[in-house]
Amino acid sequence: MADRSSYSDEKEKESTSDVKTETGGNEHDIAFERKTMRYVDWRIIPVLSMVYSFSLIDRINLGAAYTAGMGVDLNLLTGNRYSIVSALYFVPYVLLQLPGVLILRYVGVRNWMTFIVLAWGIVQLCMGFINSWGYMILCRVLLGIFESSFFPALLFIIATWYKRHEVHKRLSVFYLISVTAGGLSPILAYVFSLLRGKQGLAGWRWIFIIEGAITIFLGGVTWFFIPAFPDQNDFLTPEQTALVLKRIDDDRGDALPDPVTFEKVKTYLADWTLWAYGLMFMCTAMPTFSMSFFLPIILKGMGWSRTAALLLSAPPYGPSIITTMIVAYYSDKTKNRYAFIIGPALVTLIGLCLTAFARQNEVRYFGVFLINAGNSAVTPTVIAYSSNNVVSHSKKSVQTALMVMMGSTGATIATVIFRAKDTPTYKPGLSTVLGMQIVLVLTASFTTWRFSLRNKAMREGKRTEPLEGQPGFYYTL
Length: 477
Hints:
Blueprint lengths: L4 H13 L2 E4 L2 E4 H31 L1 H12 L7 H8 L1 H6 L1 H6 L1 H4 L1 H18 L6 H15 L2 H12 L5 H27 L9 H23 L12 H15 L9 H8 L2 H30 L4 H6 L6 H17 L3 H20 L3 H28 L4 H25 L9 H33 L18
Antiparallel strand pairs: 1-2
Helix pairs in contact: 2-10, 2-11, 2-12, 3-11, 3-12, 3-15, 4-9, 4-20, 8-9, 8-12, 10-20, 11-12, 11-17, 11-19, 14-20, 15-19, 15-20, 15-21, 17-19, 18-19, 18-21
Protein backbone atom coordinates (compact mmCIF):
# COMPACT_ATOMS: atom_id res chain seq x y z
CA MET A 1 0.00 0.00 0.00
CA ALA A 2 2.04 2.92 -1.13
CA ASP A 3 2.50 5.67 -3.61
CA ARG A 4 3.26 4.37 -7.10
CA SER A 5 4.41 7.53 -8.88
CA SER A 6 3.20 7.82 -12.48
CA TYR A 7 1.92 4.23 -12.63
CA SER A 8 -0.07 4.75 -9.45
CA ASP A 9 -1.41 8.12 -10.56
CA GLU A 10 -2.66 6.66 -13.83
CA LYS A 11 -4.45 3.89 -11.95
CA GLU A 12 -6.05 6.41 -9.61
CA LYS A 13 -7.29 8.50 -12.54
CA GLU A 14 -8.72 5.40 -14.21
CA SER A 15 -10.70 4.59 -11.07
CA THR A 16 -12.31 8.02 -10.96
CA SER A 17 -12.63 9.12 -14.59
CA ASP A 18 -13.27 5.95 -16.62
CA VAL A 19 -16.88 5.08 -17.13
CA LYS A 20 -16.30 1.38 -16.63
CA THR A 21 -13.70 -1.04 -15.29
CA GLU A 22 -13.18 -4.66 -16.26
CA THR A 23 -13.53 -7.28 -13.51
CA GLY A 24 -13.58 -10.99 -14.20
CA GLY A 25 -14.83 -10.47 -17.75
CA ASN A 26 -17.81 -8.36 -16.66
CA GLU A 27 -18.21 -4.59 -16.86
CA HIS A 28 -18.77 -2.69 -13.64
CA ASP A 29 -19.46 1.00 -13.71
CA ILE A 30 -18.44 3.46 -11.04
CA ALA A 31 -21.89 3.33 -9.41
CA PHE A 32 -21.55 -0.42 -8.90
CA GLU A 33 -18.08 0.03 -7.41
CA ARG A 34 -19.25 2.73 -5.00
CA LYS A 35 -22.29 0.70 -3.98
CA THR A 36 -20.10 -2.33 -3.33
CA MET A 37 -17.58 -0.41 -1.24
CA ARG A 38 -20.34 1.30 0.77
CA TYR A 39 -21.71 -2.14 1.56
CA VAL A 40 -18.24 -3.29 2.56
CA ASP A 41 -17.90 -0.23 4.81
CA TRP A 42 -21.18 -0.89 6.59
CA ARG A 43 -20.43 -4.58 7.02
CA ILE A 44 -16.87 -4.14 8.29
CA ILE A 45 -16.40 -0.89 10.20
CA PRO A 46 -19.41 -0.83 12.61
CA VAL A 47 -19.12 -4.41 13.89
CA LEU A 48 -15.33 -4.27 14.29
CA SER A 49 -15.57 -0.89 15.99
CA MET A 50 -18.30 -2.02 18.36
CA VAL A 51 -16.46 -5.12 19.53
CA TYR A 52 -13.13 -3.33 19.79
CA SER A 53 -14.79 -0.55 21.78
CA PHE A 54 -15.66 -3.01 24.51
CA SER A 55 -12.27 -4.64 24.37
CA LEU A 56 -10.87 -1.17 25.06
CA ILE A 57 -13.44 -0.50 27.79
CA ASP A 58 -12.70 -3.87 29.41
CA ARG A 59 -9.01 -3.03 29.30
CA ILE A 60 -9.15 0.50 30.73
CA ASN A 61 -12.04 0.35 33.21
CA LEU A 62 -9.57 -0.43 35.98
CA GLY A 63 -9.01 3.27 36.70
CA ALA A 64 -12.74 3.96 37.03
CA ALA A 65 -13.22 0.90 39.26
CA TYR A 66 -10.27 2.01 41.38
CA THR A 67 -11.80 5.45 41.80
CA ALA A 68 -15.19 3.86 42.60
CA GLY A 69 -13.81 1.96 45.61
CA MET A 70 -11.92 -1.04 44.30
CA GLY A 71 -8.61 0.45 45.49
CA VAL A 72 -9.78 0.34 49.11
CA ASP A 73 -11.59 -3.00 48.96
CA LEU A 74 -8.69 -4.89 47.34
CA ASN A 75 -5.92 -3.06 49.23
CA LEU A 76 -4.48 -1.53 46.05
CA LEU A 77 -3.48 1.68 47.87
CA THR A 78 -0.42 -0.04 49.29
CA GLY A 79 2.80 0.70 47.41
CA ASN A 80 2.55 0.26 43.63
CA ARG A 81 -0.03 -2.52 43.66
CA TYR A 82 -2.36 -0.69 41.29
CA SER A 83 0.45 -0.12 38.78
CA ILE A 84 1.43 -3.80 39.06
CA VAL A 85 -2.14 -4.95 38.40
CA SER A 86 -2.34 -2.57 35.43
CA ALA A 87 1.03 -3.55 33.98
CA LEU A 88 0.89 -7.35 34.20
CA TYR A 89 -2.01 -7.39 31.73
CA PHE A 90 0.42 -6.35 29.01
CA VAL A 91 2.94 -9.19 29.51
CA PRO A 92 0.88 -11.88 27.71
CA TYR A 93 -0.78 -9.19 25.61
CA VAL A 94 2.59 -8.31 24.06
CA LEU A 95 4.01 -11.83 23.78
CA LEU A 96 1.01 -13.51 22.14
CA GLN A 97 0.05 -10.96 19.49
CA LEU A 98 2.23 -12.26 16.67
CA PRO A 99 1.28 -15.96 17.10
CA GLY A 100 -2.39 -14.99 17.36
CA VAL A 101 -2.33 -13.10 14.06
CA LEU A 102 -0.27 -15.71 12.19
CA ILE A 103 -2.82 -18.47 12.92
CA LEU A 104 -5.80 -16.33 11.94
CA ARG A 105 -6.18 -17.74 8.44
CA TYR A 106 -5.64 -21.33 9.55
CA VAL A 107 -8.11 -21.33 12.44
CA GLY A 108 -10.62 -19.08 10.68
CA VAL A 109 -11.53 -15.48 11.44
CA ARG A 110 -14.99 -16.28 12.79
CA ASN A 111 -13.87 -19.19 14.97
CA TRP A 112 -10.87 -17.45 16.51
CA MET A 113 -12.40 -14.02 17.05
CA THR A 114 -15.59 -15.40 18.58
CA PHE A 115 -13.64 -17.61 20.97
CA ILE A 116 -11.39 -14.85 22.30
CA VAL A 117 -14.27 -12.35 22.69
CA LEU A 118 -16.33 -14.83 24.70
CA ALA A 119 -13.29 -15.81 26.77
CA TRP A 120 -12.30 -12.31 27.84
CA GLY A 121 -15.95 -11.40 28.45
CA ILE A 122 -16.20 -14.27 30.95
CA VAL A 123 -12.97 -13.16 32.64
CA GLN A 124 -14.24 -9.57 32.82
CA LEU A 125 -17.48 -10.69 34.47
CA CYS A 126 -15.57 -12.82 36.98
CA MET A 127 -13.55 -9.78 38.05
CA GLY A 128 -16.70 -8.50 39.74
CA PHE A 129 -16.56 -11.36 42.27
CA ILE A 130 -12.91 -11.48 43.39
CA ASN A 131 -11.83 -10.52 46.90
CA SER A 132 -8.06 -10.06 46.72
CA TRP A 133 -5.62 -8.17 44.58
CA GLY A 134 -3.83 -11.43 43.78
CA TYR A 135 -6.91 -12.76 42.00
CA MET A 136 -7.19 -9.43 40.21
CA ILE A 137 -3.67 -9.99 38.85
CA LEU A 138 -4.72 -13.45 37.62
CA CYS A 139 -7.79 -12.03 35.88
CA ARG A 140 -5.79 -9.24 34.27
CA VAL A 141 -3.24 -11.74 32.94
CA LEU A 142 -6.04 -13.91 31.48
CA LEU A 143 -7.59 -10.78 29.97
CA GLY A 144 -4.25 -10.00 28.32
CA ILE A 145 -4.00 -13.54 26.93
CA PHE A 146 -7.42 -13.48 25.29
CA GLU A 147 -7.31 -9.88 24.02
CA SER A 148 -3.76 -10.10 22.67
CA SER A 149 -4.48 -10.95 19.03
CA PHE A 150 -7.76 -9.07 18.68
CA PHE A 151 -6.56 -5.55 17.80
CA PRO A 152 -3.78 -6.54 15.36
CA ALA A 153 -6.21 -8.95 13.68
CA LEU A 154 -8.72 -6.12 13.18
CA LEU A 155 -6.09 -3.84 11.65
CA PHE A 156 -4.93 -6.67 9.40
CA ILE A 157 -8.47 -7.42 8.22
CA ILE A 158 -9.26 -3.75 7.48
CA ALA A 159 -6.01 -3.26 5.55
CA THR A 160 -6.77 -6.20 3.23
CA TRP A 161 -10.08 -4.71 2.06
CA TYR A 162 -9.09 -1.21 0.92
CA LYS A 163 -6.75 0.60 -1.42
CA ARG A 164 -3.82 2.44 0.12
CA HIS A 165 -5.33 5.93 0.08
CA GLU A 166 -8.73 4.78 1.28
CA VAL A 167 -7.54 3.14 4.46
CA HIS A 168 -6.80 6.20 6.63
CA LYS A 169 -10.40 7.46 6.73
CA ARG A 170 -11.66 3.96 7.55
CA LEU A 171 -9.07 3.49 10.27
CA SER A 172 -9.95 6.89 11.69
CA VAL A 173 -13.67 6.10 11.83
CA PHE A 174 -12.86 2.76 13.44
CA TYR A 175 -10.48 4.38 15.90
CA LEU A 176 -12.85 7.27 16.69
CA ILE A 177 -15.73 4.99 17.52
CA SER A 178 -13.51 3.04 19.88
CA VAL A 179 -11.95 6.16 21.40
CA THR A 180 -15.38 7.72 21.90
CA ALA A 181 -16.45 4.56 23.69
CA GLY A 182 -13.30 4.80 25.76
CA GLY A 183 -14.12 8.39 26.58
CA LEU A 184 -17.60 7.38 27.67
CA SER A 185 -16.20 4.53 29.74
CA PRO A 186 -15.85 6.62 32.93
CA ILE A 187 -19.47 7.80 32.61
CA LEU A 188 -20.68 4.23 32.04
CA ALA A 189 -18.61 3.13 34.99
CA TYR A 190 -20.13 5.86 37.15
CA VAL A 191 -23.66 4.85 36.12
CA PHE A 192 -22.98 1.18 36.83
CA SER A 193 -21.33 2.02 40.15
CA LEU A 194 -24.62 3.60 41.27
CA LEU A 195 -25.87 0.03 41.67
CA ARG A 196 -23.72 -0.28 44.80
CA GLY A 197 -25.53 -2.24 47.46
CA LYS A 198 -27.69 -4.16 44.95
CA GLN A 199 -27.43 -7.88 45.66
CA GLY A 200 -24.96 -6.94 48.37
CA LEU A 201 -22.29 -5.96 45.84
CA ALA A 202 -20.09 -2.86 45.82
CA GLY A 203 -20.50 -0.38 42.97
CA TRP A 204 -17.13 -1.15 41.37
CA ARG A 205 -18.10 -4.82 41.11
CA TRP A 206 -21.12 -3.92 38.99
CA ILE A 207 -18.80 -2.17 36.52
CA PHE A 208 -17.04 -5.45 35.74
CA ILE A 209 -20.19 -7.59 35.88
CA ILE A 210 -22.28 -5.50 33.47
CA GLU A 211 -19.46 -4.73 31.05
CA GLY A 212 -18.43 -8.39 31.06
CA ALA A 213 -22.02 -9.47 30.29
CA ILE A 214 -22.15 -7.01 27.36
CA THR A 215 -18.88 -8.41 26.00
CA ILE A 216 -20.23 -11.97 26.19
CA PHE A 217 -23.25 -10.81 24.17
CA LEU A 218 -20.90 -9.25 21.61
CA GLY A 219 -19.23 -12.64 21.29
CA GLY A 220 -22.47 -13.85 19.69
CA VAL A 221 -22.55 -10.78 17.45
CA THR A 222 -19.00 -11.60 16.38
CA TRP A 223 -19.97 -15.11 15.32
CA PHE A 224 -22.72 -13.89 13.02
CA PHE A 225 -21.25 -10.68 11.61
CA ILE A 226 -17.44 -10.64 11.83
CA PRO A 227 -16.00 -10.25 8.30
CA ALA A 228 -13.32 -12.55 6.93
CA PHE A 229 -10.64 -11.66 4.38
CA PRO A 230 -11.85 -10.54 0.92
CA ASP A 231 -11.07 -13.89 -0.73
CA GLN A 232 -12.89 -15.76 2.08
CA ASN A 233 -15.92 -13.51 2.53
CA ASP A 234 -19.48 -14.86 2.36
CA PHE A 235 -21.48 -11.61 2.26
CA LEU A 236 -20.59 -10.30 -1.21
CA THR A 237 -21.71 -11.69 -4.55
CA PRO A 238 -19.05 -13.31 -6.77
CA GLU A 239 -19.04 -10.18 -8.97
CA GLN A 240 -18.57 -7.90 -5.96
CA THR A 241 -15.79 -10.10 -4.58
CA ALA A 242 -14.02 -10.06 -7.95
CA LEU A 243 -14.27 -6.26 -8.02
CA VAL A 244 -12.80 -5.90 -4.52
CA LEU A 245 -9.91 -8.25 -5.34
CA LYS A 246 -9.17 -6.45 -8.61
CA ARG A 247 -9.10 -3.06 -6.90
CA ILE A 248 -6.51 -4.34 -4.43
CA ASP A 249 -4.43 -6.00 -7.14
CA ASP A 250 -4.46 -2.84 -9.23
CA ASP A 251 -3.42 -0.82 -6.21
CA ARG A 252 -0.64 -2.93 -4.69
CA GLY A 253 -0.74 -6.44 -6.15
CA ASP A 254 -1.48 -8.43 -2.97
CA ALA A 255 -5.19 -9.17 -3.07
CA LEU A 256 -4.59 -12.90 -2.54
CA PRO A 257 -2.60 -14.24 0.42
CA ASP A 258 0.90 -15.62 0.23
CA PRO A 259 1.96 -18.44 2.59
CA VAL A 260 3.55 -17.52 5.92
CA THR A 261 6.83 -19.34 6.52
CA PHE A 262 9.38 -19.22 9.31
CA GLU A 263 12.02 -17.89 6.89
CA LYS A 264 9.71 -15.07 5.80
CA VAL A 265 8.98 -14.10 9.39
CA LYS A 266 12.72 -13.98 10.16
CA THR A 267 13.34 -11.81 7.10
CA TYR A 268 10.53 -9.41 8.02
CA LEU A 269 11.73 -9.10 11.60
CA ALA A 270 15.14 -8.07 10.28
CA ASP A 271 13.57 -5.12 8.40
CA TRP A 272 14.31 -1.97 10.41
CA THR A 273 11.28 -0.16 8.99
CA LEU A 274 8.89 -2.51 10.81
CA TRP A 275 10.59 -1.66 14.09
CA ALA A 276 10.38 2.04 13.24
CA TYR A 277 6.61 1.72 12.75
CA GLY A 278 6.42 -0.10 16.06
CA LEU A 279 8.42 2.59 17.86
CA MET A 280 6.14 5.30 16.47
CA PHE A 281 3.05 3.39 17.56
CA MET A 282 4.58 2.87 20.99
CA CYS A 283 4.96 6.64 21.29
CA THR A 284 1.28 7.18 20.41
CA ALA A 285 0.13 4.44 22.79
CA MET A 286 1.68 6.04 25.86
CA PRO A 287 -0.56 9.16 25.95
CA THR A 288 -3.60 7.02 25.12
CA PHE A 289 -3.17 4.64 28.01
CA SER A 290 -1.85 7.27 30.41
CA MET A 291 -5.14 9.11 30.03
CA SER A 292 -7.22 5.92 30.00
CA PHE A 293 -5.80 4.46 33.19
CA PHE A 294 -4.90 7.54 35.19
CA LEU A 295 -7.06 10.50 34.10
CA PRO A 296 -9.79 9.94 36.73
CA ILE A 297 -7.06 9.53 39.36
CA ILE A 298 -5.21 12.65 38.18
CA LEU A 299 -8.42 14.70 38.23
CA LYS A 300 -9.27 13.43 41.70
CA GLY A 301 -5.78 14.48 42.76
CA MET A 302 -6.52 17.99 41.50
CA GLY A 303 -9.22 18.26 44.12
CA TRP A 304 -12.38 17.15 42.35
CA SER A 305 -14.69 14.65 44.01
CA ARG A 306 -14.88 11.02 42.93
CA THR A 307 -18.07 11.68 40.95
CA ALA A 308 -16.67 14.83 39.32
CA ALA A 309 -13.41 13.07 38.44
CA LEU A 310 -15.29 10.31 36.63
CA LEU A 311 -17.61 12.69 34.79
CA LEU A 312 -14.87 15.17 33.86
CA SER A 313 -12.86 12.35 32.29
CA ALA A 314 -15.22 12.20 29.30
CA PRO A 315 -15.29 15.78 27.80
CA PRO A 316 -11.59 15.81 26.74
CA TYR A 317 -12.39 13.12 24.20
CA GLY A 318 -14.87 15.35 22.34
CA PRO A 319 -12.48 17.51 20.27
CA SER A 320 -10.57 14.42 19.19
CA ILE A 321 -13.49 13.45 16.94
CA ILE A 322 -13.08 16.65 14.92
CA THR A 323 -9.29 16.65 14.75
CA THR A 324 -9.06 12.97 13.82
CA MET A 325 -11.50 13.20 10.91
CA ILE A 326 -9.97 16.42 9.56
CA VAL A 327 -6.50 14.89 9.64
CA ALA A 328 -7.74 11.65 8.02
CA TYR A 329 -9.57 13.48 5.23
CA TYR A 330 -6.68 15.71 4.22
CA SER A 331 -4.08 13.00 4.71
CA ASP A 332 -5.89 10.71 2.25
CA LYS A 333 -6.66 13.61 -0.09
CA THR A 334 -3.06 14.81 -0.27
CA LYS A 335 -1.66 11.25 -0.09
CA ASN A 336 0.68 12.44 2.62
CA ARG A 337 1.23 10.93 6.06
CA TYR A 338 4.35 12.60 7.46
CA ALA A 339 2.98 16.13 7.87
CA PHE A 340 -0.13 14.71 9.55
CA ILE A 341 2.00 12.79 12.02
CA ILE A 342 4.20 15.73 12.99
CA GLY A 343 1.39 18.30 13.44
CA PRO A 344 -0.80 16.32 15.86
CA ALA A 345 2.29 15.05 17.71
CA LEU A 346 3.29 18.65 18.45
CA VAL A 347 -0.24 19.39 19.73
CA THR A 348 0.04 16.38 22.04
CA LEU A 349 3.42 17.60 23.23
CA ILE A 350 2.03 21.05 24.10
CA GLY A 351 -0.87 19.46 26.00
CA LEU A 352 1.51 17.31 28.01
CA CYS A 353 3.58 20.38 28.92
CA LEU A 354 0.46 22.13 30.22
CA THR A 355 -0.82 19.15 32.21
CA ALA A 356 2.58 18.37 33.68
CA PHE A 357 3.92 21.81 34.51
CA ALA A 358 1.07 24.35 34.70
CA ARG A 359 0.08 25.40 38.22
CA GLN A 360 -3.61 26.12 37.72
CA ASN A 361 -5.80 23.02 37.60
CA GLU A 362 -7.99 24.56 34.90
CA VAL A 363 -4.95 24.95 32.64
CA ARG A 364 -3.81 21.41 33.41
CA TYR A 365 -7.28 20.15 32.53
CA PHE A 366 -7.18 22.08 29.23
CA GLY A 367 -3.90 20.33 28.50
CA VAL A 368 -5.76 17.01 28.63
CA PHE A 369 -8.00 18.24 25.78
CA LEU A 370 -4.91 18.97 23.68
CA ILE A 371 -3.34 15.61 24.53
CA ASN A 372 -6.42 13.73 23.35
CA ALA A 373 -7.01 15.94 20.30
CA GLY A 374 -3.46 15.50 19.05
CA ASN A 375 -2.91 11.89 19.99
CA SER A 376 -6.26 10.67 18.65
CA ALA A 377 -5.41 12.23 15.29
CA VAL A 378 -1.86 10.91 15.08
CA THR A 379 -2.57 7.29 16.09
CA PRO A 380 -4.56 6.20 13.00
CA THR A 381 -2.15 8.22 10.84
CA VAL A 382 0.77 6.14 12.10
CA ILE A 383 -1.25 2.98 11.43
CA ALA A 384 -2.06 4.15 7.90
CA TYR A 385 1.57 5.19 7.29
CA SER A 386 2.85 1.74 8.22
CA SER A 387 0.09 -0.11 6.37
CA ASN A 388 0.64 1.95 3.21
CA ASN A 389 4.29 0.96 3.04
CA VAL A 390 4.04 -2.82 3.42
CA VAL A 391 3.18 -5.28 0.65
CA SER A 392 1.98 -8.93 0.90
CA HIS A 393 -0.32 -10.55 3.43
CA SER A 394 2.48 -12.37 5.21
CA LYS A 395 4.54 -9.23 5.79
CA LYS A 396 1.46 -7.23 6.70
CA SER A 397 0.51 -9.78 9.36
CA VAL A 398 3.98 -9.59 10.92
CA GLN A 399 4.10 -5.79 10.63
CA THR A 400 0.67 -5.38 12.24
CA ALA A 401 1.44 -7.72 15.12
CA LEU A 402 4.88 -6.22 15.74
CA MET A 403 3.52 -2.68 15.68
CA VAL A 404 0.75 -3.48 18.16
CA MET A 405 3.21 -5.42 20.33
CA MET A 406 5.40 -2.35 20.63
CA GLY A 407 2.34 -0.19 21.19
CA SER A 408 1.44 -2.51 24.05
CA THR A 409 4.96 -2.10 25.39
CA GLY A 410 4.32 1.64 25.45
CA ALA A 411 1.06 1.01 27.27
CA THR A 412 2.90 -1.14 29.80
CA ILE A 413 5.42 1.63 30.40
CA ALA A 414 2.55 4.07 30.85
CA THR A 415 1.07 1.95 33.62
CA VAL A 416 4.26 1.89 35.71
CA ILE A 417 5.59 5.44 35.32
CA PHE A 418 2.59 6.97 37.11
CA ARG A 419 3.54 6.13 40.68
CA ALA A 420 1.35 6.65 43.72
CA LYS A 421 4.03 8.79 45.38
CA ASP A 422 3.93 11.27 42.47
CA THR A 423 0.31 12.23 43.06
CA PRO A 424 -1.29 14.68 42.38
CA THR A 425 0.95 16.14 39.64
CA TYR A 426 2.47 12.92 38.24
CA LYS A 427 5.24 15.01 36.68
CA PRO A 428 7.71 12.10 36.15
CA GLY A 429 5.11 10.07 34.27
CA LEU A 430 3.86 12.96 32.16
CA SER A 431 7.44 14.05 31.41
CA THR A 432 8.28 10.56 30.16
CA VAL A 433 5.25 10.55 27.85
CA LEU A 434 6.26 14.02 26.67
CA GLY A 435 9.76 12.80 25.80
CA MET A 436 8.30 9.97 23.73
CA GLN A 437 6.49 12.49 21.55
CA ILE A 438 9.88 13.93 20.65
CA VAL A 439 11.02 10.37 19.79
CA LEU A 440 7.93 10.03 17.57
CA VAL A 441 8.77 13.19 15.63
CA LEU A 442 12.41 12.15 15.16
CA THR A 443 11.55 8.58 14.10
CA ALA A 444 8.90 9.69 11.61
CA SER A 445 11.31 12.27 10.18
CA PHE A 446 14.16 9.77 9.73
CA THR A 447 11.92 7.07 8.23
CA THR A 448 10.31 9.48 5.77
CA TRP A 449 13.72 10.85 4.76
CA ARG A 450 14.97 7.33 4.03
CA PHE A 451 11.82 6.50 2.06
CA SER A 452 12.19 9.67 0.00
CA LEU A 453 15.78 8.69 -0.89
CA ARG A 454 14.62 5.23 -1.95
CA ASN A 455 11.80 6.66 -4.05
CA LYS A 456 14.23 9.07 -5.71
CA ALA A 457 16.74 6.32 -6.47
CA MET A 458 14.00 4.19 -8.03
CA ARG A 459 12.69 7.04 -10.19
CA GLU A 460 16.17 7.91 -11.38
CA GLY A 461 16.93 4.29 -12.27
CA LYS A 462 19.69 3.99 -9.68
CA ARG A 463 17.95 1.04 -8.03
CA THR A 464 17.25 -2.18 -9.93
CA GLU A 465 15.41 -4.18 -7.26
CA PRO A 466 11.75 -3.11 -6.86
CA LEU A 467 10.82 -1.45 -3.57
CA GLU A 468 9.20 -3.98 -1.24
CA GLY A 469 9.67 -6.52 -4.04
CA GLN A 470 6.70 -5.08 -5.93
CA PRO A 471 7.26 -3.53 -9.40
CA GLY A 472 5.86 -0.01 -9.65
CA PHE A 473 5.78 0.40 -5.87
CA TYR A 474 6.74 3.71 -4.22
CA TYR A 475 6.63 4.53 -0.53
CA THR A 476 3.94 6.84 0.78
CA LEU A 477 5.63 9.78 2.50
